[in-house]
Write a structure and sequence with these properties.
- The chain is built from three helices and five strands, in the order βααββββα.
- The chain has 98 residues and is of the alpha+beta class.
- A hairpin with a 2-residue loop joins strand 2 and strand 3.
Length: 98
């Protein structure tokens, strides 16, 4: 079974901001960041229960190579991405989205 991926607007904005920041640091790095996100969410869509619960029903998937977590919940046949969060940020910020 493949789950449908839903990215909340807040998470989408975080993805854009992070990719833009990386792209400003080095040409092509923003695209690499988005590719890492795409690879991670591809795995996530196949087996979302694989990743640990971190708060309530929210789970966390760490991106390869980048210090970001994908915070998500499973709702039926959907995986809802709540945040794409830098590891150094205060987790209470994404926890308010639950």
């Amino acid at each position: 079974m493949s789950y449908r991926l839903i990215i909340r607007p807040e998470a989408d904005a975080e993805l854009y901001e992070a990719s833009h920041w990386y792209e400003e640091r080095r040409k092509g790095l923003g695209k690499e960041f988005l590719s890492a996100f795409a690879a991670a969410t591809s795995n996530l869509r196949r087996n979302p229960q694989l990743y640990p619960i971190v708060e309530g029903d929210a789970r966390r998937l760490l991106l390869r190579r980048f210090p970001y977590s994908v915070i998500y919940e499973i709702h039926g046949d959907e995986v809802v991405v709540l945040a794409c969060f830098h590891e150094s940020r205060d987790p209470q910020e994404w926890q308010r989205r639950l």
